[in-house]
Design brief:
Number of strands: 7
Strand content: 15-25%
Structural class: alpha+beta
Order of helices and strands: EEHHEHEEHHEEHH
CATH superfamily: CBS-domain
Shape: globular
Strand order of the largest sheet: 3-7-6
Number of helices: 7
Radius of gyration: 21 Å
Length: 185
């Protein structure tokens, strides 16, 4: 257990229920629009030392573009990055958190959807901030050093996100013997 601001003593479970996304999120993150060239998005990420930009239209988050998205788009196409738009590479079906969500819920969403960052949206879809796994990890040591289980939850989340999915086993061929052992487990 550790003292919280205001002197309250809380255990891990209470901290996870009471610590909210809004306490750890980055407010007013840099954004881009679907019409932003990939080269501009990449320069913005480099300048801001971040790996993600929420894609916003009229203050509403309509997608997200990551540094990985930019690299893969550039590597898969001979067109220069200045000729490619964020709209061509952004993820449209985003997973998000709400500012009042408990931090444990946000970590659960990150594990489920295997993402390191969650846009934080208001009920009307307006972008309020962004929460990264790094934001949570950095605050654990600084603000909650006596809560090792919170650190364990972050570690489990990072493990779930980073875990490589095994390819599906090949479909059985007509030549395969019934009851034969699989080639791999």
């Amino acid at each position: 257990m550790t003292p919280r601001p205001g002197g309250a003593i809380v255990g891990y479970g209470v901290a996870m229920r009471t610590m909210r996304v809004k306490e750890l999120m980055t407010r007013d993150p840099k954004t881009c629009s679907p019409e932003t060239p990939l080269s501009t998005a990449a320069r913005t990420m480099a300048a801001e030392n971040c790996g993600v930009l929420p894609v916003v239209v009229e203050e509403r988050c309509v997608g997200i573009v990551t540094d990985r998205d930019v690299c893969l788009a550039i590597g898969n196409d001979d067109a220069p990055p200045s000729a490619r738009l964020v709209a061509d590479t952004m993820t449209r079906g985003i997973h998000f958190a709400r500012a009042d969500d408990p931090i444990g819920r946000a970590l659960q969403l990150m594990r489920r959807w295997r993402v390191r960052r969650l846009p934080v949206l208001a009920a009307d879809g307006r972008l309020e901030g962004i929460l990264s796994l790094g934001d949570v990890a950095l605050r654990i040591g600084a603000d909650f050093p006596a809560l090792p289980t919170l650190g364990e939850d972050v570690a489990r989340t990072l493990q779930a996100i980073s875990e490589r999915q095994r390819p599906a086993p090949p479909a059985p061929s007509r030549r395969s013997r019934i009851g034969a052992a699989p080639l791999y487990f």
